[in-house]
Amino acid sequence: MSNKVIHEENDVLHSLIINNIPENSMDMEVLQQLFINLSAITSDGNFKPVVIRSRGDNFSMGYDCSCHLVKDNDFLLSVVSLGTGIMQLIRNYEAPVVSYCKGFTLGAGLELTLISDYSVGEKNSKYGLPDILFNFPSIIIPPEGMRHFIPGNTVKELATGRILTFNESLEHGIIFRDGNLQDAENMATSLNNTFFRRIKGSRFMKNEIIKAYAHHIETINTKTIRLKELESFRQKLRETA
């Protein structure tokens, strides 16, 4: 297994760095390595803040379009199980988790950002769930539980599949503030861990929602997922960025 998620640690902070350029696609290996690293960080009991970021120009453009296995319901369910597992690990983590976004933050990349406690983004960054337009399902946040992380009007806006500018994302509560990597790290280390232990539970959804979504994934018609068109769409985005 290649090293698609790099874990760096210093005295005050964990960094998880997605290393799957150019798109930083959230393929099965990335999800597995995020899950393994988050599990290890949780198990050590120190609960330092975590910053999730990426190498290259984009935070993540979404799940890997070249993975045709997602058209198999059992495989897709395994992807979603990993994704919701990552969500549970982050929501149960007893310290702040901050995402630092640049370039495109789309699809599963946006979902990863939304489950973080705060997100810091560069002013040229863009956000959205265009995967919806190609019938690609959510793999981290069950749609019914999206309102646990963002306001209802923002959920409706994202459901259009439109890609939002940084300023629009700021207005919709997707991004907390603009800044660079140092700003994201400073935010993570300055936040109060005790405060986050109190509020995180209030932002977590019931297990029934996760179970119902898993059942939905088992039964959806995966033949309607248009991977080639989504791949072409992302390629055009990169070419015109």
From TrEMBL:
Record bears the keyword Calcium: no
Alphabetical GO biological process terms: fatty acid metabolic process
Domain of life of the source: Archaea
Keyword Transferase: no
UniProt-listed CDD domains: crotonase-like
Keywords carried by this UniProt record: Fatty acid metabolism, Lipid metabolism, Transit peptide
UniProt-recorded Gene Ontology molecular function terms: hydro-lyase activity
PANTHER family: ENOYL-COA HYDRATASE DOMAIN-CONTAINING PROTEIN 3, MITOCHONDRIAL, PTHR43602
Protein name in the entry: 3-hydroxyacyl-CoA dehydrogenase
